[in-house]
Design a protein that fits this description.
alpha+beta, Penicillin binding protein transpeptidase fold, 4 domains, five-stranded mixed sheet
């Protein structure tokens, strides 16, 4: 062989292999780039924010009773430590038996799936691991394309590099859909078995593990036979993978499904309260409804479920004031006045989520405002006490000739402050407000949480341009039970984030409205109002103080308090329509609710008088004397001594003034206290005198009606 010839021709041989080598090099480079992209490109597919699952918010009492759940997706995130081994084993056996051995992608499974896809000339089978399913559910669509599958692998490898197997399994179990609106193993466990995942049996865990493949098809509620078949397949896989023994397999496959459907979703008794909780979370803590639906918060509230159920039931079925435009609506709230915590809220007779919550509707307060706009401020001046006399004559006020009327159109000339409040005298309230001044009284309204921009004397009767909500009124009345200290009302005591860290807590806010003496006086008077005055309708055997209000023919109120709670009940129409009744309706219904609460809670029989305050004397009821009579005795020296007598009530405080009729002006000849006899001075045998008696209230100084007259003379 000619060596020189070969060497001479060699460059031409190289030229022949130049392009194939180049192509192979490029292909190898592309393969390397693709491999590295798949291996490390997952961070471009994975969005860390998507790893934070949407989780339901729970509304619960302080002792952990869950009242309602707020969510877009019904999910409760649980730690993998709370999931029993047999439950984890069920999912791993049916979904990914080599979960703890692969690096996120089961390449044997992939090759098998690729082979079947090629044979079928389309995408027919997947080989997704638990990690891949998690990646697909979190970051990708459900399209069966090669590009989507590539991204799924990239994301899976990323997850395996950055998270432990248990962390991946925890995310998977909390993420997957189990049908009927439930997401995650904990919500599914509670939905289908009414228990936490930590309490699931082997068979129950297997049933849940079989659901994600086709939740509707294998629904244990709708298709129990198919659900049992699918469960038994999972149990068989658990046996095949060595997670259960043969005897356990046989036993578990023979059990019933043991599912239990909850009926709580149909109940609406708590809806009004939770609606207010959502509103308060947004207004006070700036957590929106949408954030609550996904944020996984625990909201601890002041609701008393026993009282809330009673109130919701009575508001739904109780007797309401009649109206001209169909059923009249209502609102009710009850507050623990020692803390301000609201224990019950009913925002409508048949309230359900999405309805208008009338607990936040501002309405004219009518006469319920009188203790705060008139009588409390007047006693705070020091110039008035409960037995100060007020005008009760029909009259006009101010330059605009404001002419209020009493609700019964009866007028007594003058009455005590006590009587004016008990009987809800409109004239007296306006007259007194005129005396103390509107601007002065409005200062107390501000402290009571009842501010108003109005400036006229109509404030005394609650005829306001804007009005107040039941929540505002319950705060104000609660202050009277707390020695004049108003506590801000609230439903939320604290909010915890998904890590159980307290992020918000109710701050106690207090405002002094009246001093404790004025508050106690008002409490005693308002008890009389409930027992004998305008709020006497209905039956309640324990301690209750309160006031009614009727605003024209539009709506009616009762507002009051027991030693434990302050409560408000409103009835009326939201817009048009007239009521055909009085405040006896909300008064009766309030007392009925309290009577049922008393049966469950044992409410106090009397208010406890605070230290350092005076009790209010019982008001004096002046008698009408119609049996005045007289007699004469001869004393000698032609002189007579007279005795006049009359019948008196048991009240020994009443003063009796004795008058002798004279030409011109009658003369007071004496007085006695608590006695029914008076001795007339001696007079001549030929003289005669006529006498009468006037009873006097020692508390107010008010005189009663003159008695019948009696003439003393000697009959010869």
């Amino acid at each position: 062989m000619n060596i020189k010839g070969i060497i001479k021709r060699f460059p031409h041989g190289l030229k022949r292999f130049k392009w194939p080598i180049f192509i192979v090099t490029v292909v190898l480079l592309l393969v390397l780039i693709g491999y590295l992209t798949i291996l490390f490109g997952g961070r471009f597919v994975v969005n860390e924010k998507d790893l934070i699952l949407e989780e339901m918010t729970t509304v619960e009492t302080d002792d952990g009773e869950v009242i309602e759940q707020i969510y877009t997706k019904n999910r409760e995130v649980v730690s993998i430590d709370q999931v029993p081994e047999h439950v984890k084993g069920a999912f791993i056996s049916i979904e990914d038996s080599r979960f703890y051995n692969h690096s996120g992608v089961d390449f044997k499974g992939i090759m098998r799936a690729v082979y079947k896809d090629i044979i079928a000339m389309k995408k027919v089978e997947g080989a997704s691991t638990i990690t891949q399913q998690l990646a697909k559910n979190m970051f990708l669509s459900n399209d069966k394309t090669w590009m989507r599958k590539t991204k799924e692998v990239m994301a899976s490898l990323y997850l395996e590099r950055n998270y432990t197997k248990d962390e991946i399994l925890e995310m998977y179990l909390n993420r997957i859909y189990f049908g009927e609106g439930t997401y995650g193993i904990e919500a599914a466990s509670k939905h289908y078995f009414q228990k936490s995942v930590s309490d699931l049996t082997i068979a129950q865990g297997a049933l849940l593990a079989g659901l994600p493949k086709a939740p509707n098809t294998y629904s244990p509620f709708d298709h129990p036979e198919k659900a049992a078949e699918r469960r038994n397949i999972v149990l068989s896989r658990m046996y095949d993978t060595g997670r259960i023994e043969a005897d356990t397999l046989k036993q578990m496959q023979g059990t019933t499904l043991a599912v239990e459907r909850s009926e709580e979703g149909k109940e609406t008794w708590s809806n009004s309260y939770v609606d207010q909780v959502i509103h308060e979370a947004a207004e006070k803590y700036h957590i929106s409804r949408d954030e609550l639906k996904r944020g996984g918060y625990r909201i601890v509230v002041e609701m008393d479920p026993v009282i809330q159920r009673i109130a919701a039931e009575e508001m739904k079925n109780g007797e309401f004031v009649p109206g001209s435009s169909g059923p009249v609506e209502g609102a009710f709230t009850l507050m623990n006045h020692s803390t301000g915590g609201v224990v019950a809220i009913v925002g409508g007779r048949h309230f359900k989520h999405g309805d208008f919550n009338r607990i936040r509707a501002a309405e004219a307060p009518a006469s319920t405002i009188k203790p705060f706009a008139v009588y409390g401020p007047a006693m705070m001046t020091g110039d008035y006490d409960p037995f100060s006399l007020l005008s009760d004559e029909k009259q006009t006020f101010g330059s605009n000739d404001y002419a209020p009327k009493n609700h019964d159109d009866r007028y007594d000339g003058e009455v005590s402050l006590y009587q004016a409040l008990v009987e809800s005298k409109n004239i007296s309230a306006v007259w007194l407000l005129d005396q103390i001044g509107v601007s002065y009284a409005k200062g107390f309204l501000d402290k009571a949480g009842l501010p108003t921009k109005d400036k006229g004397l109509a404030i005394a009767l609650g005829g306001l341009s804007d009005g107040y909500t039941p929540l505002q009124m319950v705060e104000a009345y609660g202050s009277l039970a707390q020695q004049g200290i108003r506590k801000e009302s609230y439903t939320i005591s604290k909010i915890l984030d998904r890590n159980d860290k307290v992020i918000h807590e109710h701050p106690t806010k207090e405002t002094e409205v009246f001093d404790k003496q004025t508050s106690w006086f008002l409490t005693e008077i308002l008890q009389r109002t409930v027992n004998e005055g305008t709020a006497s309708a209905g039956d309640y055997s324990k301690a209750l103080a309160g006031k009614t209000g009727t605003h024209q023919n539009e709506h009616v109120w009762f507002a009051g308090y027991t030693p434990e709670y302050a409560g408000v009940l409103w009835m009326g129409y939201d817009q048009s329509g007239e009521i055909n009744g009085s405040s006896v309706y909300p008064t009766r219904l309030m007392k009925k609710i309290l009577e049922k609460v008393d049966q469950e809670k044992g409410l106090a029989a009397a208010f406890e008088k605070p230290d350092g305050v005076e009790s209010l004397p019982e008001p004096v009821d002046l008698p009408v004397i119609t049996d005045l009579r007289g007699s004469l005795d001869l004393t000698g020296l032609a002189l007579l001594r007279g005795t006049i007598q009359w019948t008196i009530p048991d009240d020994e405080r009443i003063v009796y003034r004795i008058f002798r009729e004279e030409d011109g002006e009658d003369v007071k000849v004496g007085e006695v206290t608590g006695k029914n006899v008076y001795k007339v001075s001696a007079f001549g045998i030929f003289d005669q005198s006529t006498y009468y008696v006037i009873p006097v209230d020692p508390l107010t100084g008010k005189e009663g009606q003159p008695s019948n007259a009696v003439t003393l003379k000697w009959d010869l």
